[in-house]
Amino acid sequence: MGHHIQKLGGRPSTFKFFVTHCIRITLKDHFHIKGLETSFGYVEWIGTFQGKKGTGKEKNIESELIRQLISVGAVPIAKTTLMVSTWAPENDNNILGYSWNPYNQELSTGGSSGGEALVQALRGSAVGFGSDSGGSVSMPSSYNGIYSVKPSPGRLSFKDAAGSGLGNLAITALVGVMGPSISALRLVFKSLMETRPWEHDPSFLPIPWRNDQEVPPDAILSFGFMENDGIVAPHPPIARALEITSSAVNNKGHQLIAWDPPSHAADSIHLSHLFPDGSPKKSIPLSDYENLTLEMIGFRNQYREYWASTSSHTKNSRAVDAVILPVSPYAGFKPGKFDYSDDADASDGVPAAIQILGRDLEEEKILSIAQIVADAIKEYQAKQA
Q1: Taking the model in full, what pTM does it have?
Q2: Domain Amidase, which positions (predicted)?
Q3: Over the stretch 248-286, which tens digit does the pLDDT of each residue have?
């Protein structure tokens, strides 16, 4: 590249090169790119700015994430389809239709970032970006056999992105990175941190990439391990994936302890508002909303306290480094059928995935731990072959 710059009369020393230069990326149709429509899955939004006409903003606004990506040399090549209005575990809209799993076209890609997961599964770009509030990146990633990371609030910018409910600060949408490898996720995450994004987005935490937070490959770790949350039992493919992971991690000398946190039934606080009984959703008094938010904060605090308490069960007397657990109870599902007991054989041929849970603001640590676990699984399976 420097040679070509010299031929054009430039000097290589005047240019800053990034390892992300010319990397082709795709993004969920959440993000504004100048010159392109942003539909968010709504037919009515086509030709408008988020449903409004004559604003002068149509195709003229660029999301902060796009600015950062372009500044490090990445090349956005496409936006990907999503579930209408998001907040759903599958992918369908009246613009591009339903998104089917490339491994088994009787099954869904999952959602709401299913279009991006599909593109990554087919290697349509080097890395992609989705959004996530309650699994919209992790679930489709698991069904499509790719890697993803959902970071903590304040580490990737959602500024100037389209969406619904953007004023809800209790449960916020986050940017997730999706790609073919953990190293790809790390590369992009680290490159974005080098742009000092907190100088442009007030919701961003001023935390650069911290190399000293990464875990060395030969570290001996302790994990929480959850096979079943007491509410939903995983399908056989997921149970088998957990069994393989457990054996692989144990064989490398890491410690696994049973993970028995505050009941996940508390998620009903969240789900009752996402999936009402079909009747029109009624407004609630601000005091009731405040009480729901306090319940959610209380549950988060209980979860953090439980995590800290695991130090009394580990060999090194430190809290577990991460938790290994299912992403969802199944490896795939048929359109509109979310009953976990429905036709387990239908998932034949699709990937089976697990997830690794870390504490807030430990992205550097959790990505390096994920690589350690992935390497352990690869080594274990090679020995079993």
Answers
A1: 0.91
A2: 23-265
A3: 999 999 999 999 999 876 666 555 555 545 455 677 898
